[in-house]
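Review this:
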Amino acid sequence: VPMRYLPAIIMAFGLSGCSTTSPPEPPSANPSLMAAEKLIDAFYSFDPAQLRAAMADAPDSQQALLFYQGWAEGGNYVILNRQPCQFVSEGEATCAITVRDDLIAALGTGFWVTDKFHLTMREGQIVAVHNSSNDPPDFELALKWLQREQPEVMTGPCRGFFAGGPTPGDCVRAVVGGFNAYRAARPAG
C-alpha cells in the first residue's frame, strides 16, 4: 500500500468503530454464560470439589446437585449432545445436555434423556441451580414399581434420595438393577 493512502485507511478503520449498532455479544464473552458453562464442565468432571467451587455462591443448591453428580457418575452418564447455555430471561439461564446412561438403557426405551440445568444468575455469579429432564414415562413407572417391589433400595443405598443421601453412586446402581428387574417383569409387547 503506498504511503499516501495510509492516512485514509487509518481514518476508515477508525470510523468503522463508530457504528451505531454493535454486533451481538458472543456467549463466550458474557460472564454469566461463562459461569454457566464452567458449572456444566465441573458437573461432568465428576469432581465434587470442582462442582462446589463452581457453585460457591449457590450454597442452598449444592446438596442436591452434588448428589445428582454422584448419581450421574454412578449411572455412567455420557454426553451425547451439549447445547450452549443460554438466557431464557433476565438473570435466568438454561443448559441442555442430552446423555446416554445406564438407567434408560436398562429400560430399553431407545430414548436418551435431555437434562436441563436451570441457573439463577446475579452479577455473573450462579446463585441457584435446579434440574429438570424429559424422562420417558417408563422411568416414573419403573421407579414406582421399584419403590413397591424392592423398598429396601429406598431405605438402603437410596436413603436420602436426592436430599443429600450419602451414597448416590450405590443408589443409582441399585436403581439400574431394579429397572432391569422391572423390565423383565413386564409382559412382552
Remarks:
- The chain is about 50% helix and 20% strand.
- The CA atoms of residues 89 and 188 lie 45 Å apart.
- Helices lie at 6-16, 31-45, 48-54, 59-74, 102-107, 137-149, 151-155, 168-185.
- Strands lie at 78-82, 86-89, 92-100, 113-122, 125-133.
